[in-house]
Amino acid sequence: MTSPPVTVVMRTKNCDWVVDQALAALYAQDFTDFELLVVDSGSTDRTLEMVGRTPARVVRIAPQDYVPGAVLNDAIATIRSPVIVFQNSDTVPLHPSALRRLLAPLRDERIAASFARQIPRPEALPWVRRDYARAFPERGPAPEWLPLSLPFAAMRRSVWERHPFYVDAWGSEDTEWGVWARRQGHSIVYVPDCRVMHSHNYTLSQIYGRRFIEGEADAFVHPDAPQGPIRAIHRAARSTAADALDAVRRGAWGECLTAPARRAVFHWAHWRGHRHGARRRRRGDTDLRTGQRIVLSRHESVR
């Protein structure tokens, strides 16, 4: 049996609040020559029932086995399509040509991967909207610090074969791959006219979990980047000031009170995660369970 040119990989867990929207938007695309592979890590809600209404192939894994890089590598190893598309279970393409636009840059053999512009959900908080506007501009390239983002992205399987996703740390597998690709001279294209809806109104606890694993990963991805508690405090102060200024401009005075705690957690968690990752790196410690526990205990369903 001949493989389709594209396989879409979707990771799921307890996302019945949105996965039907993500699936409906995917199957409404004007590019239809794809197959869907769903990797579910222990859903207990109606997620698998919803997925079962589609022709998707489903692989189930135990919740404790969910390590993003390893899960993706195992999934891709079963795929023969030359192009892999990654779609988060909570990512909804906003127009029928999104997949075709995402794939268009890969017609150029020099392009290794592409990724979409992420639009915040209607209920996104102002600070989330501001962060997404900075990360995913309406036009032009993505910022230098964002080489790749997997919620909706495409990748050549042949380039992945040269460098599978890393498993040194629990998170930021897309960032590490993007940094590697750039260093090897591969091109990754940000596609701003490919728009998808994706965002999270994280609580302080969830912010801590996500930023801890990002900091841990940065200790492996950017081992020479300067870090430290003083730098974290300075970053928190700058971002708090930017949040407060934006709130004042909008007349949202209450946000001036919440910004300091949010940004303090944001930067302090990253520093603590980086410190943990740097210690692991020095010792040659391959145990990922600390980061896994910290993030999943706070928000198990985020994929």
Concise overview:
This protein has helices at residues 19-27, 47-51, 68-77, 98-103, 126-135, 157-162, 173-183, 204-221, 229-250, 253-283, 289-296; strands at residues 6-12, 34-40, 57-60, 83-87, 92-93, 111-119, 152-156, 187-197. It is an alpha/beta fold. It has an eight-stranded mixed beta sheet, with helices on both faces.
> Tell me, what's the shape?
globular
Query: Topology as H/E string?
Result: EHEHEHEEHEHEHHEHHHH
Task: Kindly provide the radius of gyration, computed on alpha-carbon positions and rounded to a whole number of angstroms.
Answer: 19 Å
Number of domain units: 2
**How many helices in DSSP terms?**
11
- Write down the oligomeric state: single chain
Strand percentage lies at 15-25%
Low-confidence stretches: none
Q: Biggest sheet, strands in spatial order?
A: 3-2-1-4-7-6-8-5
Q: Describe the sheet with the most strands.
A: 8 strands, mixed
Quickly name the level 1 CATH class of the largest domain. Answer: Alpha Beta
At the fourth level of CATH, the homologous superfamily of the largest domain is Spore Coat Polysaccharide Biosynthesis Protein SpsA, Chain A
The CATH architecture of the largest domain can be given as Alpha-Beta Complex
How confident is the prediction overall: mean pLDDT? 91
Helical amount:
40-55%
Structural class: alpha/beta
Topology-level CATH name of the largest domain? Spore Coat Polysaccharide Biosynthesis Protein SpsA, Chain A
- The count of β-strands is 8
Distance between the termini: 31 Å
